[in-house]
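Protocol step 4 of 6: structure prediction from sequence.
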Amino acid sequence: MKKILASFVMIILTAAVASSCLAGQSETEVRQTLAKTFPGIKAGEISSSDIPGLYEVEAGSNVIYFYPEKGLLVFGEIWTKDGRNITADKRARLAAAKLKDVPLDKAVKIGNGKNKVIEFTDPDCPYCRKAAEFFKGRDDVTLYVFFFPLPIHKDAEAHARYVLCAADKRHALEEVMSGKYDQEKVEVCADEKASALLKEHMDLGTKLGVKATPVFWINGQYVAGANIPAIEGLLGKKTATHTQP
């Protein structure tokens, strides 16, 4: 009986040690194991998660999880007990690191304020329009607008191209955001450069992990949706008449 018990304890200790070793693998070791187990996954940054033995893996614009001990991939979101989405936070940090490569000269630039705001918007999205109305009242913002029209809005791409075709892009953006062309058709834009620019906007949004609109990076801090209290918290409360340089 003592021999059986000793053997059982040894098995448990061996398993615990093995698990501890796996949990402490280097990024290189985890990457090699992942590449061998799931060769189709193109991994970017890999780091340990708050769960021992589970690793965060940057896969394109997504964050997935790898458990090398069992060779398992986990797709989903990890939440804390106080309602914080750890996975979303990680995606935001990864995207923020890529902001330095965002070609701001490709955006529709509005204003010349001290606060730098990068926005991805859909011109037919009601929440995007709510955000647009908010920013019209600020003179302390430089807003860089990129378009990310969603498939659920059938005219959104046409409206985005209309803005990108316009000589006065700020005015054209205000027109579509006001709902002027919800019933009235916009002038068809056949400019190939505008279509190519729209594709650049959408590809950039995909690279940054944009899945819905609007999304913002306010002085580098990520905000999802027209969360006006969160946006004001980053900008500071202020009411002013917006001026265009």
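Step 5 (inspection) to follow. DSSP finds eight helices and nine strands in the chain.
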